[in-house]
């Protein structure tokens, strides 16, 4: 996958993209990340990329010309691929695991990072194919949001993670929260790893993990269960979990 990021501050990405899994993905040739600074497409001595908003108001707005020209240059470079153009914006669709899986199927992504008070509306209307938000809050710019999107998408690319099943077992991949994870030592400060995980019985471990996923999701994010396609086994486990919770709460009430 090739990812192009249109940003005024490409140096912000040096740390996150030069470490750990993202670094290894690039070294393996599974992911290539490129940066394009809109200032390259300004034609005055001050390299102006923003201006005051029409109609008045505080702050400055990013001009359309440099952004359009930056994206058009990228598209020329990646031909014959088209490249999906995404604007990172607090007004966009909320980013989640399903969107990450969808984007991981793309051959090329072009991410536009807004800044200041935002971008000229014509970028939204005539250039971006989609707007994505990583949460209901406002950041200084779209750079941090772009980092989040790239990280979430990259780990879903074949070969990026050491174990191919790792991503599928993550929270949200299947719609449920992940089960508890343990490693050595088997006992630490009196806290023991659940016996089932030491049993070597893979079927019992599978059922325990599935039960914990359902239980954790029910307790912490119950709204997620409405979106998940549950098997008959899941439904049975969920009934048992709910009965146990009700019984526990009833004792607490007494």
From TrEMBL:
GO MF annotations, alphabetized: tRNA (guanine(37)-N1)-methyltransferase activity
Binding-site list for S-adenosyl-L-methionine: 114, 134-139
Catalytic activity: guanosine(37) in tRNA + S-adenosyl-L-methionine = N(1)-methylguanosine(37) in tRNA + S-adenosyl-L-homocysteine + H(+)
E.C. number(s) listed in UniProt: 2.1.1.228
Main localization (coarse): cytoplasm
Domain of life: Bacteria
Residue span, tRNA methyltransferase TRMD/TRM10-type domain: 1-227
GO BP annotations listed: tRNA N1-guanine methylation
Broad enzyme group: transferase
Gene3D superfamilies found in the cross-reference section: 3.40.1280.10, tRNA(m1g37)methyltransferase, domain 2 (1.10.1270.20)
UniProt subcellular location: Cytoplasm
One Pfam family this sequence matches: tRNA_m1G_MT
GO cellular component, one term: cytosol
Keywords in alphabetical order: Cytoplasm, Methyltransferase, S-adenosyl-L-methionine, Transferase, tRNA processing
InterPro entries on file: Alpha/beta_knot_MTases, tRNA_m1G_MeTrfase_C_sf, tRNA_m1G_MeTrfase_TrmD, tRNA_m1G_MTases_N, tRNA_MeTrfase_TRMD/TRM10
NCBIfam families: PRK00026.1, trmD
Family of this protein: Belongs to the RNA methyltransferase TrmD family.
Function: Specifically methylates guanosine-37 in various tRNAs.
PANTHER family in the record: TRNA (GUANINE-N(1)-)-METHYLTRANSFERASE (PTHR46417)
Subunit structure: Homodimer.
Protein name: tRNA (guanine-N(1)-)-methyltransferase
